[in-house]
């Protein structure tokens, strides 16, 4: 019997059913080869890891107990971070709507516009937020403005993509009915499509804000303002008790915002 | 008054709620506007913006197509290797953690403790992990791999838990009723359900790790981030342009590929 021939099972009624050949062995081999080369390139070494893993805990141990006195200096940067992500998220979400309108193939009839807008959105999405923040600090100077711009760009790209996917999947019956009654495309979009996508759109925007607070916290590392600035400073001075305080405060903030946002999103959907 | 108008009037009036929501949003918006400070924005900024755009349009092609250790292709390869190995290690670590925090597998208290631990792991920013691992491994891509692995655990195990908790139990019952051993139940009842979804999530995370790997360069943990930042601080915009172009092409390509693979995996 030929090895390459697929196995088959003969049923009692005489039919033969071929057994699908599993691709798992091939995938595993490919993964192992990739692993091998990645280990070579990155210099991964398990021995070093097991021998020196104790060093990993040094910083972590230094963080406890956190420096509670430091908290009085943290409120302003913390609120700066929240402001940055709030403004960036709101503006980004608002500007994403027209972009998503032009990017959805069932709304704008011009193919070039659709392709161009989609391309711009995915190009913006590839730009890592931290790199965007870095570029923004060069243009807008060091401070929260740069961070806001970086978050704004990320939010437009993220919400825009989710939004145009929703618009493309939306039910068009009401939209077509309104058009046939003489509404223009834009006004039909306003009254037929927006009510359909609104709950999801708001929910995504809030979710994005939640993630942005997390992101905004590190943006300070490149000078884009907020609590990341303090984090960078404390790390630079190796003052790990302060770092512990910052992380604790950050964790509490993120937890509170996550709880609120989850509550609102549950109400929305 | 016809039927349509009656229905229209029956619709509950939400004016009060809408006004309250609008006021809250506007108050927040105004409050956050105080974060904007354009005093640092000078004509200098415009010139720099122009330079950056010029650099991206006219990249340093020599850097873009040099195949040695400082060329963009090698840096991209290194970034990919970091993201790949980080994802693999992260997935291997996340699977047991996910099973331990799934409330339909282990007792509730255990699941709760592991979940708290995972929230804790997720809160620490990648940069701090990077610094911690540099103490262990020294600066370089090795530290980047470990950082990526640790950063991935949080999201991976969260998504894995969702998949595990959605397990179809009926299949296990029917397997049991035809006399399968526990091992057979796991092999034919559980693994086929979980495996495809797990791989799909892992590929998605690889996609994200590739973007995040650019951050690691900040603390000296390898990848394309460090050369990018050096080039920026030295105002070598054409180098910045070539690195950014390389990064964008790679990310777009990997995203396209990962979407394709995930679609085929999930649809079977």
SSE inventory with pairings:
The complex is a heterodimer of chains A (269) and B (268).
Chain A: E1 8-10, E2 16-18, H1 24-42, H2 46-52, H3 54-63, H4 75-103, H5 111-126, H6 129-140, H7 144-169, H8 173-180, H9 185-219, H10 227-236, H11 240-268
Antiparallel strand pairs in A: 1-2
Chain B: H1 3-10, H2 15-33, H3 43-57, H4 61-64, H5 72-100, H6 108-123, H7 126-137, H8 141-165, H9 169-177, H10 182-216, H11 225-233, H12 237-267
Strand content of chain B: under 5%
Structural class category of chain B: mainly alpha
Count of helical stretches of chain B? 12
DSSP helix fraction of chain A: over 70%
Rg calculated over all Cα atoms of chain B? 25 Å
CATH class label of the largest domain in chain A: Mainly Alpha
CATH topology of the largest domain in chain B: MetI-like fold
How many strand units of chain B?
Answer: 0
Number of helical regions of chain A = 11
Q: Identify the CATH homologous superfamily of the largest domain in chain B.
A: MetI-like
Which superfamily, in CATH terms, is the homologous superfamily of the largest domain in chain A? Answer: MetI-like
The fraction of residues in strands of chain A falls at: under 5%
Question: Could you tell me how far the N terminus lies from the C terminus of chain B, measured between alpha carbons in angstroms?
Answer: 56 Å
Largest interface: A-B, 58 and 63 residues
What's the oligomerization state? Answer: heterodimer
N-to-C order of helices and strands of chain A: EEHHHHHHHHHHH
Q: Which overall shape of chain B is indicated by the principal axes computed on the Cα atoms? A: extended
Walk me through the structure.
The complex is a heterodimer of chains A (269) and B (268). Chain A has 269 residues and is an all-alpha fold. Chain A has two domains: 8-59, no CATH class; 68-268, MetI-like (MetI-like fold, Orthogonal Bundle), CATH 1.10.3720.10. In chain A, 75% of the residues lie in helices and 2% in strands. Chain A is built from eleven helices and two strands. A two-stranded antiparallel ribbon of chain A has the order 1-2. The radius of gyration of chain A is 26 Å and the shape is extended. The N and C termini of chain A lie far apart (58 Å). The relative contact order of chain A is 0.12. The model of chain A has no long low-confidence stretch (mean pLDDT 85). With 268 residues, chain B is mainly α. Chain B has two domains: 3-46; 50-267, MetI-like (MetI-like fold). Chain B contains twelve helices and no strands. The termini of chain B are far apart. In chain B, 34% of the residues are buried. The interface between A and B is large, with 58 and 63 residues.
């Amino acid at each position: 019997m030929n090895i390459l021939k697929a196995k088959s099972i003969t049923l009692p009624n005489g039919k033969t059913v071929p057994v699908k050949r599993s691709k798992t062995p091939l995938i595993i081999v490919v993964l192992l080869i990739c692993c091998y080369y990645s280990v070579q390139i990155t210099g991964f070494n398990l021995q070093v890891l097991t021998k020196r893993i104790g060093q990993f805990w040094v910083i972590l141990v230094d963080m406890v107990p956190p420096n509670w006195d430091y908290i009085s200096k943290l409120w302003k940067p913390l609120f700066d971070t929240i402001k940055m992500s709030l403004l960036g998220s709101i503006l980004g979400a608002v500007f994403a709507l027209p972009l998503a309108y032009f990017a959805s193939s069932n709304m704008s009839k011009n193919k070039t516009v659709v392709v161009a807008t989609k391309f711009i959105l995915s190009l913006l999405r590839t730009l890592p937020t931290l790199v965007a923040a870095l570029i923004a600090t060069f243009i807008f100077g060091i401070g929260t403005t740069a961070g806001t711009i970086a978050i704004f760009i990320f939010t437009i790209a993220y919400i825009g993509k989710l939004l145009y996917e929703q618009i493309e999947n939306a039910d068009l019956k009401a939209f077509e009915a309104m058009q046939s009654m003489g509404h223009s495309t834009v006004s039909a979009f306003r009254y037929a499509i927006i009510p359909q996508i609104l709950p999801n759109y708001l929910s995504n925007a809030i979710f994005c804000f939640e993630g942005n607070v997390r992101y905004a916290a590190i943006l300070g590392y490149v000078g884009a303002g907020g609590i990341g600035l303090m984090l960078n400073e404390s790390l630079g001075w190796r003052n790990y008790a302060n770092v512990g305080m910052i992380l604790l405060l950050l964790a509490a903030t993120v937890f509170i915002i996550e709880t609120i946002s989850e509550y609102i999103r549950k109400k929305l959907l | 008054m016809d039927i349509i108008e009656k229905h229209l009037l029956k619709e509950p009036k939400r004016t009060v709620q809408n006004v309250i929501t609008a006021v809250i949003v506007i108050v927040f918006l105004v409050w956050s506007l105080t974060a904007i400070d354009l005093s640092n924005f000078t004509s200098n900024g415009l010139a720099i913006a122009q330079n950056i755009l010029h650099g991206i349009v006219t990249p340093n092609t020599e850097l873009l197509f040099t195949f040695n250790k400082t060329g963009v292709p090698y840096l991209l390869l290194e970034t990919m290797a970091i993201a790949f190995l980080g994802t693999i290690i992260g997935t291997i670590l996340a699977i047991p953690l996910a099973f331990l925090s799934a409330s339909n597998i282990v007792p509730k208290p255990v699941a709760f403790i592991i979940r708290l631990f995972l929230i804790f792991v997720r809160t620490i920013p990648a940069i701090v992990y990077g610094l911690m691992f540099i103490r262990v491994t020294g600066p370089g891509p090795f530290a980047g791999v470990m950082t990526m692995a640790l950063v991935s655990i949080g999201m991976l195990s969260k998504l894995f838990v969702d998949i595990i908790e959605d397990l179809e139990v009926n299949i296990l019952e029917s397997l049991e009723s035809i006399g399968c051993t526990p091992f057979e139940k796991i092999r034919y009842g559980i693994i086929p359900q979980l495996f495809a979804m797990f791989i799909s999530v892992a590929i998605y995370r690889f996609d994200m790790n590739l973007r995040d790997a650019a951050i690691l360069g900040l603390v000296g943990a390898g990848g394309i981030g460090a050369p990018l930042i050096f080039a920026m601080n030295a105002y070598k915009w054409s180098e910045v342009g070539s690195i950014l172009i390389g990064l964008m092409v790679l990310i777009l390509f990997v995203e396209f590929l990962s979407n394709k693979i995930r679609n085929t995996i999930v649809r079977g």
